[in-house]
Amino acid sequence: MPWAPSQLVPLLQHLSSPQNPSTIPHPSPLSRRENPAALSNNASAVPRLGIPPYQWWSESLHGIAANGPGVSFDGPVKSATGFPQVILSAAAFNRSLWSAVASAIAAEAKAMHGLGQAGLTFWAPNINIFRDPRWGRGQETPGEDPMVASAFAVEYVRAFQGEYHGDALQRRVLRDNNSDDDDDGRLMLSACCKHFTAYDLEKWGQFTRYNFNAVVTEQDMSDTYQAPFRSCIEQGKASCLMCSYNAVNGIPACANHNLLQKVRTDWNFRGYVTSDCDAVATIYEDQKFTKTPEDAVAAALRAGTDINCGTYMLRYMKSAYEQGKVLEKDIDRALFNLFSVQLRLGLFDGEPERNQFGKLGPQDVCSQEHRKLALEAARQGIVLLKNEKNLLPLDKYFVSSIAVIGPLANSTNLGGGYTGVPCDPRSILEGLKGYVNNVYQAAGCRDVPCNSSVDLVEALSVAKHAEYVIVVAGLDLSQETEDRDRYSLLLPGYQMELVTAVAAVSRKPLMLVLTGGGPIDVSFAVEDPRIGSILWIGYPGETGGTALSDIIFGYYNPGLYKF
To answer: The pTM is what?
Structure first.
């Protein structure tokens, strides 16, 4: 079904027109049956108005990911460039790099949309403050510093959305909405800053992200938690904001009128607000903030939530309306915000190949240029934490053999959370083989949890026969991810014993490589003279094995300490 702009113009004009409560409102162009169906992430079609179904939920945190239903790798495009996880890219402290990565992700997203494999509205970036180092989703964020998170948000959103300006049709529809040209301009794609706000917990004892109440002072809220979101909207011009599961000072974020209205009145936000998935349901079911499901739907909608990721609004909107808890003006406001963003995205411009982005195709996904950029991003993010007696870099012409030990030494799954299908992932083992002919490998632990030491004997045998030894230790998604927090900052299971034992039998000082998004206490390794160097590689993405090898052999000089 083609999108019909001629039908959308009068629809938006109606939705944006002020209604005097003392008068009888004119009927909405959408029926009461159609209204709730438009306020779900899986929005239904309205055939009589020429509006096809639309899936609002696509993901693009550090590359196109299939976490949401809007993205599919079942088509001409089978994979997409896997850039480093955000916490590693943030460690580069390079705004131009962040912008370049977001632009590359956007090009691949737009190309996949043209092939029917992605939407145009992507729910990224995650700009929450990494307050607790045990938080499982801290890896998705730019870190604990509000200034860095703010800068990252601005660069990502500006580049991802394209910063294009609107045409006469858009201005005609939106001219009475008191928006400036920058906010009402054409969008290549829509970025969404999440999770608003003070969200930094998955599971801890009796508390979960669904029932957690963040108690935050007004000053801390302004200086710390809100700063990235304010920059995201005021400077980045984000067209979407996602409200979080948790409550803030006793009020669920998606039902918090003061918070959600502030972004429009004080920050001039002109996009749409989506709930996190099932966050409207948690208002009633987990937080017990309302007495009925209808009250939860009404609280979210009237606070400023425009769309529900999930089916809660779809299930309870009709009864909430019939009970007088939801007014037509509340629904109209939400519809206006949603259709306005779709208009700016060009969804009503006709055939996609006729617009300025229509020439993007499969050749723009997993391109050589993007894969080189992913490699550069990984190189710039990796941090050298220790380098005693200038152990690094190694000279490949004088290295006879090298052993790489650890459960992730030969893994190509180095992307972290919200990773899609990478183009051509390379393990650390493969990367090292590009520099040295004799490379030996042993797991040392069967997996990252490392609950047994039975594989230690093989690892020690391999270590004894190599000139140089690298141990890859740290975290993966079994330890930290969405819905999973850590309880300790130590290496999992027997990993510390593995590192110490291998260091004791190595001919030369050990090289320790740490994976993971959250901090790890490796003070034992810092103090151990048998461990000569420590490198943190975070989640380096599909080119991580190559990037690490380039650093070990001096092809690239990492940050912090200089060779």
So the answer is: 0.92
